Amino acid sequence: MTNTVWTGVVPITVERYAMLARLAGPWLADPQPEPIPIGQDSGYENKAIYVAVNRNGDACYCGRTAPTRALNRGAAATRIGQHVNGNASKRDEWVEYWVVPLRDVTPGHVVSALEKTVAARLGIPLVHRTQPDAAAGSHRPGPVRPPPLTGPPPCGS
């Protein structure tokens, strides 16, 4: 038995996909308003936001593509494959994914902001993202953590 990564709470429907696609505004390429089975190609997009769903169609994960080399298939399919090949829980839970393809000229900061917006609209937490390291002026991998809580400790502490 595997540990649950994220069970999903919001079903992705054609209507919800349309709302998410509208968030991309002028950066949206050709919309793909249907789920793609895990293992099937997503097309030839380089930049995209993708949402993995479970057997119930509930959103489990939101990610973005940022390929650093030419791919022979869609970047979203490539990223989904990397996820499920490296994690048994994701392989067990994820059955389909939706893709919001973006124009190739979409700036990286727009792709990143759109990923965060889509995740927030779906109530999916973003973890293990790159954070700016102010001291070094570069980026370091690590979880995105909320600021520490202030005030009295919670009841029962």
How would you portray this structure in words?
The protein is 27% helix and 22% strand. With 157 residues, it is of the alpha+beta class. The strands form two sheets. It has a four-stranded antiparallel β-sheet, sandwiched between helices. The protein has a two-stranded antiparallel sheet with strand order 5-6. A hairpin with a 5-residue loop joins strand 2 (47-53) and strand 3. Mean pLDDT is 77; it is low at 129-157.
Please render the helix and strand layout as text.
Elements: H1 14-23, E1 32-37, E2 47-53, E3 59-64, H2 75-86, H3 88-93, E4 96-102, H4 108-122, E5 130-133, E6 138-141
Antiparallel strand pairs: 1-4, 2-3, 2-4, 5-6
Briefly summarize what is shown.
27% of the residues lie in helices and 22% in strands. The chain has 157 residues and is an alpha+beta fold.
